[in-house]
Design goal:
mainly alpha
Length: 255
């Protein structure tokens, strides 16, 4: 490879690692948002440790990507072969880990759905309309996704407030605004005029599945794009590493 091609590869790799570093910032920010946002679905699943672990993994992956991007930039600009080799190895491990995680999630989806149902059922049974963080999050989900319960509105049949009340109560966040009359409340319980609640018929599990099916092309596109970017980074790093001479550590700036 000529000197011009080596120089071009070096700066392309630097640009790639700059993008990789910024991607790490985005991933870490997304993990922190899921963990700290009071209206995210994670609040409802606060007893589902696997989801919290997933958020911490996102934060860790983001931080690791930032460090890896920095090392890649350093290795590319100052032509340090050991850093480029380390960078290639880490990218390969990340790609393999992503493939393994995708396969694991695919084969464990039934188990995840079952665990999700159990946790949401517990949330609905303990719902009191007191505007706790968990209750606000579930009201937000039902109101914005226009759904009721997890599998159906019958998931609310175990709620003790509804069972023990002499009134025909139903969760206000389930209320179908298109068939309701009067003021619509965002949380707590509302009183129905008849035993047929004026609510959304679909469960939130179906709404989530519908959203995923609608956006599956975007999700797959993002995953494929990330994989291709990682492959590009591996190719650039190994090409640059192969065409460098003996390491000259005097190029590394001293502070």
């Amino acid at each position: 490879m000529g000197k011009g091609c080596t120089t071009a590869t070096k700066y392309f790799l630097f640009l790639f690692n700059l993008i990789f570093f910024l991607s790490g910032v985005v991933i870490m920010g997304f993990g922190l948002w899921l963990l700290l946002d009071n209206q995210s679905f994670l609040v409802v699943l606060n007893n589902f440790q696997a989801v919290k672990i997933g958020c911490f993994i996102l934060i860790g992956v983001g931080a690791f990507s930032m460090v890896l991007g920095f090392l890649g930039c350093l290795g590319a600009i100052y032509e340090i072969r050991c850093l480029l080799g380390l960078y290639f190895t880490c990218l390969l491990l990340i790609l393999l880990a992503q493939i393994a995680a995708g396969v694991l999630i695919y084969y464990q989806k039934d188990v995840l759905n079952e665990e999700m149902s159990k946790i949401v059922a517990k949330v609905l049974d303990n719902y009191r309309g007191g505007n706790s963080t968990t209750e606000q999050a579930w009201d937000f989900i039902q109101r914005n996704m226009e759904c009721c319960g997890w599998t159906s509105h019958q998931d609310w049949n175990g709620n003790m407030v509804i069972v023990n009340s002499s009134q025909l109560l139903f969760p206000c966040s389930c209320q179908n605004v298109s068939i309701s009359s009067g003021n619509v409340s965002d949380s707590g319980f509302c009183e129905a005029a008849t035993p047929d609640w004026p609510i959304y018929d679909v469960g939130c599990a179906a709404s989530v599945e519908s959203w995923l099916l609608t956006n599956i092309g975007v999700v797959l596109g993002i995953c494929l794009g990330v994989a291709l970017i990682e492959l590009l980074g591996m190719i650039l790093s190994i090409c640059l590493c192969r065409n460098l001479g003996k390491e000259d550590y005097t190029k590394v700036p001293k502070y």
